Each structure stands twice: as C-alpha cells, then as structure tokens.
Amino acid sequence: MKILKKKIILLLLFLIQFTFAQKQDSISTLLNSYIPSDTLRSRQLIKASNYFTYSNPQRALKYINEGLTIAKKKNWKNGTALALNQKGSIYYTMADNLKALDNFLEALSMAEQVNNQKLTLNLYNNIANIYADMKDFDKALDNYNKCLNISAQQKDSINQIRAFNNIGNVYSETHQVDKSLTYFDKALFLAQELNNTFFVAAIINNKGLAYKRKEDYKNSLKYYSEALRLSQNINNKYIEATALNSLGKVYVLQNEFNQAKKYAEKALIVSKNIDAVEWQADSWQVLNQAYENDKNYERSLFAYKQYIKLRDSVTSQEKNADLTKKDMQYQLDKQDALASAEIRRQSLIKNTAIGIGGFLLLFAVVGYLLYKRKRDADQLKNTAEIKAKMAETELKALRSQMNPHFIFNSLNSISNYLQTNNTVKADEYLAKFSRLTRSILENSEKKWIPLREDLELLKLYIEIESLRLKNKLSYHIKIDENMDIDNTLIPPLILQPFIENSIWHGISKKENDGTILIEISSANQNLICAVEDNGLGRNGTIKNPNKNNNSMGIKITNQRLDIINEIKNVKGTINFIDKKQGLRVEISLPLELKF
C-alpha cells in the first residue's frame, strides 16, 4: 500500500506513454496473441505493466518481470533500462522505497550508457522523490536540479513544471518558504500556459501548505479552498483528500473547531475510499482535537486511538543506511568505470611512447591501485557492516521499548479511567504516557544521552506501570554522590528491559506490594548500573514453563552491549544475581562523559 504524502509531488515515474483507453481484456488478448519472446513482446509487457501499476500492482509486477527477462536475454539495453524504471515505479507505489531505489539506480546506469536523455531525466526525478521521502533534502535537490537542467535544455515544459514544483516542496519542507513560493509560481505560470488543471490544482495545494508554514492562515485557506474546488472539478480524490485535511488543520490553528471537524469528517470519507492511510490518520488527529474542545472525551480518546493505530511508524534507520550504501555503490561504480577508461587511454599513450618499460611501470601502478582499492573496500565493508548492525539493533531496541502490549495496556487504562468518570487520573495517565512516547521517539536516533534524562524516562515508565498496577509498585533511585549525572552519558533506556522484567515477572505476580531499586555508580572507568527487585525471582517464575525471563528486550540489550564493546574495545557485562527474595541485575558500561 502506498502511503501518500501531505504535499503533492508531481511524479515522473510513469512516462512510458501509450493509449490508456485500452481495457484489461484487450491487453490480455494482445499479449496472448503475440507469443514470441522478442523485443516487441517485451515492449508490450512494459506498456501493460504501466497500465496496471495503480490498479493492480501485483499483476503489473508479473508483466514487468517477464518483459525485463526478455530485454536482458535479447541484450536490448534501452528496453532493459525502461523495464527497470517501470519496476522501480511499481515498488514505489507499493511503498517499498528500498527496492524502488535499487531498480532506479540500475536503470540510470543503463540509460546513461545508451544516452536516453528522456529516461535519464525521468530517473533523476524518481530518485529525488525517494530522497525527499527519506528527508535527505540535499540529495533530493541535487537530483531535482539535474532534472530541471535537462528539461530546460530540451524545452520540455511538462518536466520543467514538475521540477519547479518538487524543488518548491523541498524548500517549503525545510522552512525556506519565500524561496519555495518563487518556485511554485514558476511552475504555476507554465501549468496555466498549458491549461493543465491537474498540475494547477497540485501546485496551488502546495502553496497553501507553504503559507500555512509561514503562519499566513488567510492565504493558506484561500489556496487550499481553490485546490479543493479544482480537484473536485477534475474528480482527483488524492488532491481533494489532502486539501480537506489541510483546511481542517488550519481551522484548528485558528481555534475554529466546528469548521475543522466538518472538513476532517469529509476528508476521512475520501481517504478511506482511496485507501490513503496517512491521510486517514491526519483526519483522526483533527477530530481528536475537535472532540477534546467539545469536552467529548470518549470520542476524543477513540479518535486518538485511531490516529495512533494508523500513524506512520518511526523512520527506519536500517533503511536509511541501506539507501546510502546503494547510492555510494552506484557512485563508486561510476567513478571506477571513468577511472578504468582513463587508465586504458593513458596506457595506450605510454605504450606507444615508451614501449615495454612504460607498460611494466603501468602494470606495477595498476597492481598497486587494485591492491589499495581492495584494501579500502574491505575497510569500507567492515565499517558498513558495523553501522548496519548498529542501525538494526537500535531499531529493535526502539521497538522493544514501544512494544504493542505496553501501548495497548496504557490506552486501555486511560479508557477505563474515562469510563469510571475519573478524568483526573485519565489526564494524569495520558500526560505521562504522551511525555514518555515523545521522549522515546526523540531519543531513538541518539547513541548516548545524559544520565539525568535517562533516569527521568525510567521514572515516567515506572510511574505509568505503577498506575496500571493500582500503585502496588514503588521505586527508589540511589546515585553515587561523586557522580555528575548531567555530564555522564548512557545509551538511552538500556535499563528499561530489566525494569520491565522485574515488573511483569517479579512484582505483578506478588500478592503484596513490590519495590524496585536502581543504583548508579562508577569504578575503574566503568559505569555500573544495577536494577534490583523484591519480586518472586527466577526461582519463583520458572515454575510456569510458559514464561521466559530472557525477554526479547534483554536479548536486544545484550546485542547493544556487544556493539558497544566492539566499538569501544571494552568488556561491558550483564550479571544476574539471585537473591533470597527477588533478582538483582548489574550492568557494566564504559564511562562516557560529555566533556
């Protein structure tokens, strides 16, 4: 499912032109009537895949795989480039940016080899769209400008409009609003000259977003309303949905909640019809604020749950790392190809000028360069593997800290307080839950944070669980008096899985109250952290064979510690100490200071 954006990107993904009036049956008949595996069938398969990209991407993928296989077999390089571009387009509509970029980069290399300028322009735009989605705006601008330069040289107005609009989106999203409006106006001028209503509606919608970011709500409402009118005239549900949601959000900013609710309800209907998940989440977010203003807390909570359920997951660092590696590989391959061509040219000159002696010298130089290249490549590979492992482990750690059971239990507890009319407790619970969730997401990209911040997060987590357990849980934090908790750094929430284990497996099963003790000290350039509880302990919980005390969170913590040991060249440890009543866990980390 393609997750749609709040801004409208004018895509160049589907430039392979053919008659869209063809029906599905006629396409199948055409393919079945022409069987030979040659370039003509490959071309028909590419066109058929293009036709089904939006309506049936799986069928489109089946057609393009066959077309790509034939093109490669027949060594039809231009067809191979076209097929790779189309395959990338399908993956982009399916929200698989990683596979999309893989195919686009391979297609770009092939298109440049056969000097297909139109396809090269297309691919620069496609790659830029992916970088813009991933918030890598420098690379996005670089590729959009390449697209703009080529389209200007070819006097291609359509692609100039797309490039101007997409560059405007980047500047708008990076809060360079006045600069973005300049590019939107250039795109709008060309679109109006061509009388292209779709482009005009999309660009005007983007201008509404730019004015909203500028806090010029009067102009923002003006442009969003015009975009809504145009989208309804041409029956474009994508622009209609984003314009409706955007109007609702601007009215919220102006505290006109009745108007906001009206537009959000309309946007929700349109978004559901086109299966636009992100825009459905936006509609629920506006409705949550409108119901809260009406003091309709039950419907407000329901809307908030729907918003949380549909909201985009945290951007995967693992995908960012893979995308960067693929781009680097493409650039290195391109540079290697240029370097090899230059070496061959110089070799010919030297062989002609100085004969065998020059050839031997060149051979020695090339041998050294190949050896150095292999050595450098091995070093880059090792570094990339460590970074990828770090990204994967950090993503898993975030998922363990934001596990669905904790979120579900917290929201249910809030709901229970509301049903019993205990709004004070519900507000307290919701405030703590919101602070914890925001802090976890904010710290998800950080390798180390100050100890004070981490302890505040742990306090919030324990207090939320204590509320859920009817305050049968208490905690104490003991810090060595010589420690500066503002200057001492620690990996974010590395103690949380052990506290979770203590609560779920040690204390929640007890009949009486439980206590968690957190101790922080330092020794021999190591940070010593201990989590101790007076719960059932491992001897008590092991009686139930369905419970596994070595939770996924603890396994991930072990992996995080292994990476820290490898990078810092230290020997951090985790020790479990059984007590007469309860369990003590001691973690040894390298002592890291801010300054």
Topology (elements, then pairings):
Blueprint: H1 24-33, H2 39-52, H3 57-73, H4 77-93, H5 97-113, H6 117-133, H7 137-153, H8 157-173, H9 177-194, H10 197-213, H11 217-233, H12 237-253, H13 257-273, H14 277-293, H15 297-310, H16 317-401, H17 404-419, H18 423-443, E1 449-450, H19 451-468, E2 473-479, E3 488-490, H20 496-507, E4 514-523, E5 526-533, H21 537-541, H22 552-568, E6 573-578, E7 583-590, E8 592-593
Signal peptide: 1-21
Transmembrane segments: 353-371
Keywords: Membrane, Signal, TPR repeat, Transmembrane, Transmembrane helix
Written account of the structure:
- With about 600 residues, the protein is of the alpha+beta class.
- Among the domains are: about 1-155, Alpha Horseshoe (Serine Threonine Protein Phosphatase 5, Tetratricopeptide repeat), CATH 1.25.40.10; about 405-595, Heat Shock Protein 90 (2-Layer Sandwich), CATH 3.30.565.
- It has helices spanning about 25-35, 40-50, 55-75, 75-95, 95-115, 115-135, 135-155, 155-175, 175-195, 195-215, 215-235, 235-255, 255-275, 275-295, 295-310, 315-400, 405-420, 425-445, 450-470, 495-505, 535-540, 550-570, and strands at about 450, 475-480, 490, 515-525, 525-535, 575-580, 585-590, 590-595.
- It has a five-stranded mixed beta sheet with strand order 2-4-5-7-6.
- Helix 2 (about 40-50) packs parallel to helix 4, helix 14 (about 275-295) runs antiparallel to helix 15 and helix 16 (about 315-400) crosses helix 22.
- It is globular, with a radius of gyration of 29 Å.
- The two termini are about 45 Å apart.
- The model is unreliable at about 1-5, about 10-25, about 315-320, about 395-400 and about 540-550 (pLDDT under 50).
